[in-house]
Amino acid sequence: DDHHTVEVSFHDTSRHRLRVPLLTDYFNFTAASLGPRGVAYISPSNGAEQPSMLVWRAFESWSSGADWTVALPEGENAMIVAAGTSAVAITTSARLLRIYSTAGRQVAVLNVQGQPVALAAPDPGHIFEGGAIGAACQHHLAVVWAEAGPKQGCNTQQLAYTVFDVAQCSQLYSGKVALSPGASLSWLAFSQEGLLTTVDSSKVVRLRSSQWGGSWVPVLDAAGAKARAGADQFWPAWLDTDNLMAVVTNSKSQHPQVSPRPLITPIALGLSIAPAEAAPAEAEEAGLRAGLRIAQLQALSEAASSQGVDGDLASYINSLRVEADKTNLRLLTAYLKVGKQTRALELVGNLHQSKSIEGALKIANHFHMPQLAERITSFLEDKIQYEQEQEQLQQQQVGVWPTSEVPSQQLSQADLENVQPTDGDQGANNGYDARAKPLQTSSKVAAAGQKRKTTDVVVGLASEPKANPFARKKVVK
């Protein structure tokens, strides 16, 4: 046969209801990339008469002429392709990164610092639909190249990466790719929350964290999970908050079968935890992963704000902090059951909300630990004072007084009761009667809890509030 026919079908038909027309392949395509707006194909050259090609087919368009093709210069072959929301990118044998808009306009021609290995662009369908995350990530493009040959004795690829923001024509961050000893890179993508993700040939899944200077965090040893599932192969599809979504199969083939349509199986993520004695591994792992998510979302929120992108992540980040505090309070209870007071006090420093620290104080009193309760009280006083100073500073910067308190999601009383230890979990009494003093606190903490809510805003110079002619009366609720 002198040509083939390419058919595109979707696993999630609810996202793509239109049928994509069949494509007659006259160029012998070797790779393709599905994007949210279309599919990109690449083919190698076949002598001087047939150059290497990039072909774009849009899923739908408001005008005709949405499809386009590119013939690369003689001697240059397209090697890797990635289709994103606003761009189509290829790397070539000339170590060039060629970036086009989805309309076919050439955006950039950049040198790659080594032999290209992989490209990845976020899929909006698998990015958290919180507005700002999708807006901040949708124009990202990751490039991986071979920085050097495998080192003698370890046979491990030496790879580096760079992540660009195509819309801003800027480089966001770069570094080296972490791999298992003797492994090579198998898969590159962005997670649901915009984290750069890799899977190597040893089936270890890693996320690039915004913490620790952009270090890589192993979140799953999928080889072990695959063995427990009794499978021979798995093919990653995407990574959500808690699972690697993959095609798990007993087939010896390297790639999943097309027909019948393969099933997507969730493989639960989990950090490789080595806890100290008397430490609940599951709770510590959940706390570490919650911190990883919060740090990433904060970084994305700051990036979106700096670019003037609309979208509010504050409420979602706050809800994650609430869940993280619940996990840490359960972990604190577990520490106190075995008398690890210093470890518990360290954990108090990871609590995000004053309400959560009050919960830790109640737990310390429940276990009859007055010295720990005293230190938690001191920490709570400092936190309340810091929050009040920050609030006053914000008022002075914008010229607003008195404060309009914005309601935020916090731990409710029911939440605190859910993490409270039972009566059977009490520690040694040590001469301390929790019933006589149910909550060790201070007048400063109590006063902060009784603070009146006031509205509204006053517009003017913060340095001269009395002279402000636009001031309105304070309304006490």
Descriptive report:
This protein has 477 residues and is of the alpha+beta class. The protein has helices at residues 132-137, 222-228, 281-306, 314-337, 341-348, 354-366, 370-398, 413-419, 443-449, and strands at residues 4-6, 23-25, 31-34, 38-43, 53-58, 68-71, 78-83, 87-92, 96-101, 106-111, 115-120, 140-148, 158-165, 170-176, 185-190, 196-200, 204-208, 216-221, 233-239, 243-249, 265-268, 454-455, 475-476. α3 (281-306) runs antiparallel to α4 and α4 packs antiparallel against α5 (341-348). The longest helix is centred in the last third of the chain and has 29 residues, at 370-398.
What is the structure about, briefly put?
It contains nine helices and 23 strands. With 477 residues, it is α+β, with helices and mostly antiparallel strands.
What is the beta-strand fraction? 25-35%
Oligomer: single chain
Helix content: 25-40%
Number of distinct helices: 9
The computed structural class is alpha+beta
Strand and helix map with partners:
Blueprint: E1 4-6, E2 23-25, E3 31-34, E4 38-43, E5 53-58, E6 68-71, E7 78-83, E8 87-92, E9 96-101, E10 106-111, E11 115-120, H1 132-137, E12 140-148, E13 158-165, E14 170-176, E15 185-190, E16 196-200, E17 204-208, E18 216-221, H2 222-228, E19 233-239, E20 243-249, E21 265-268, H3 281-306, H4 314-337, H5 341-348, H6 354-366, H7 370-398, H8 413-419, H9 443-449, E22 454-455, E23 475-476
Antiparallel strand pairs: 1-2, 3-4, 4-5, 5-6, 7-8, 8-9, 9-10, 11-12, 12-13, 13-14, 15-16, 16-17, 17-18, 19-20, 20-21, 22-23
Helix pairs in contact: 3-4, 4-5, 4-6, 5-7, 6-7
